[in-house]
Queue: 2 jobs
Job 1
Amino acid sequence: MSRNDDWKTALVGAMLACAAAHGYAQVGAVAGSLDRDAATSLVTRSWAVRVPGVDKVVFRGGVNHDTAGMGAGTMMYPAPSPVGFLAALITHGVLNAGFREKQKNQLQANADLILAPFEPVLAGFTNQRLLEAARQRLPAERATRLLNPNEPAGGDWLVEIAPVFSMTQDRRALVLDNAVRIFAPGPSPVVYAQTVRVVSAPLRPAQAVAAATEPAPVADDEFVKTWSADQGQKLIDESISLLAQSLEIALAESGGPATDDKTPHRTFRYPEGGSEKMERAQLVSESCGRRLIRTLRGWLMSVPSDDTIGDRCALPSAAAASAAQ
Amino acid sequence: MNFRSLVVGTVACVLLVLTGCATKPQLPVPMNKAALSAQSTRVGVAMTPLPKVDTFFPGASCLLCLGAASVANSSLTTYTKALTHEDLPKLKQAVAELVRQRGAVPVMITEDVKPDAFPDRSVGAEGGFARKDYSAMQKKYGIDKLLLVDVSMLGFERTYASYFPTSDPKAMLRGSAALIDLKTHALEWYQPLAITRASDGAWDEPPKFPGLSNAYFQVIELTKDEVLKSLKP
């Protein structure tokens, strides 16, 4: 592996860590809205989005950790002496931690197998192409220009993103986790940070597939066919749509949070592929068959309201709300 | 005492120790569709007292191990105590409504039913029958059947192998839901509740543990779903 490859691998790792863990969310919870809001309204800002340094769009298989772990057990430590006992204890701890990490990696590797039929499409799907298409779907007041990874933003508000896509194990939906950071013009620390998750509306199965109890072979899988048709047009188009939605949500939210501590939390249910998922959150807005909610982590999530609707509008209602500001 | 008697006696003792205290777990009993369809059947709907939300560390079995586990998870334990039962106590109302929809007459029992306060049944500890004698409820409330939701453990579980965790903490609920014919003590429905949910992403996010909190509220919702789905007409 070349040094360049090392660098890219590290960058992908950092993107995954940012999106999956809490780093960005915690910064976002602290940063909240932009401090310079009074100086520049959202409508008059000019935006520049930096293309992520990693070339290819990051895709993963959706993974479930409900069954992860090794279960309870008892360890009998050989203890010929206090030093021997301590050595046994340390050895057990090291082996145990290693095994757990290996198990998590294995779970992810198994989950990623779901993407195998799409490798030819994903191999040529770059972040440059993704962002170029996504920015064209933003409303006029969010017009953005693209920056190369190290290009300065000049007088524009700089937007850095780290999108990571997941496909559900039933191949019926895509989930985007996009860690977004915004910098004011000029030398500036991060003034806004947020992780936005967007869940696509599920693909509808044909009657025969809905009634089937066994998953179809990949060659016969109607969802593989749907995503892959026309050189993966549906997969690419849905990814672009999710990214555009996440950008619109983040840019709109950066003007001021739509919820406060008084907004009640409740448990929302939504379809993620063929499964029903739940999230404890505050309702931010609801329209176009989608809900925008704020999770306990402070992340923003755009989810289908139910499994019959989900994409009636090109963008969630946060766009309309913020455009009116 | 000859040697043979000694061996037989020892084997008998060992078998008694190994099997004497074991209670066969009650297997699920599917809902008897006729059980709630008779219009004159009065069904008491009750719940056991909800346990306090807590942390559990199975596998940390020695005193020192348990101490180490408690210290290592102290911030989670502290936070756990602030969690509420949400709308779990209202599950009774939803159950009663479905009992009514199925044709029987629901009788809401507002007091908490404590199984330990009822006598063990001298016979019928075999599968398919209640282990406690709830006949007193029949007389007190004028009911024919008792639908009892029993939540025995609620909170977060992290498995251990002595001193070391073998999993991340997960939200969990343990318990059962049962429909008992108070004349025969037969279980006309028995649904064990063993629901576990992991945090989506990182779990170690003190002080409010949003990932685990989200999993906790999912567990409460899933429990309600699990109880209600068998009762739907």
Job 2
Amino acid sequence: MKYIVDITVQLKDGMRDPEASTLQRSLEQIGFKTHKLTLAKKFHVTIDAESEDAAEEQGRAMCERLLANPVIHNYTITVVRK
Amino acid sequence: MRLAIVQFGGSNCDYDVEYVLTKIIGIDASIVWYKERLNGYDGVVIPGGFSYGDYLRAGAIAARTEIMQDVRKMAAAGKPILGICNGFQILTESGLLPGALMLNNYPKFICTRTYLRVENDQTPFTNRFNKGDVIQIPIAHMEGNYYTDKSTLQELNAGNLIALRYTDPMGEVRANANPNGSVENIAGILNQRGNVLGLMPHPERASEEILGSKDGLKIFKSMIDYAEKIAAPNQ
């Protein structure tokens, strides 16, 4: 069966992200006051898997082996049947 | 004794390192394309550049190529492995060194001279220096902000695995001498065994008088001394 695995990779909470703080300042300059701004990378991967759990497991393996760096990142995975 | 310089798509300091090793120092060294294997080499330099366009994270793709399995085996065999700039990023991404290199604190590309203090002179890469020496080697990077969690940082300190720190010209570790936000001004670290060094500064750009500093040459020469000892242990 085909599944779409949605993977979001972002810096662990509390880690300094200069890109995010620059954007926050930039938003403020054009009139948007924000309390918090974080950036994340999103991957939409379409795969074959036997079940939703198996698809999620594949997504997890992709994160562990390439898409995320465990030293600095957290990731979340949601699976949708295609 | 022969050193390999691993070349990935997007490496761009490969020829500079080759020039320093073969023309200035005069040893046997060759560039090895990442699809080839590392047979018969006594040490490896992973040069700087932008392998795979820094896609995903700097060094992430190169770290997962097959040739890095050979590098891993050579590291396990005790051979010296030197990662410069992107090479350092590749070594952390491959798990050969702990921590990660993140976007510079001030998020832009920095190309400048830096002063470094030699924190450990008993390593295969620094034994031609004395502890406390202040040396000058330039940096050129956008992701050189060394980060690691507190417990790893403690291990690095306790094991004397921090080889180089960014300092002011007097050798003082100061916040304003930290070009990229690295934790504890770290510029270069070793693995537990001491035979793998990653550093952001470019020793190949400080290997001739005309470039303003020859301090980088001592890093290569230290590495060569060590590789020669390993290659011919009975001599």
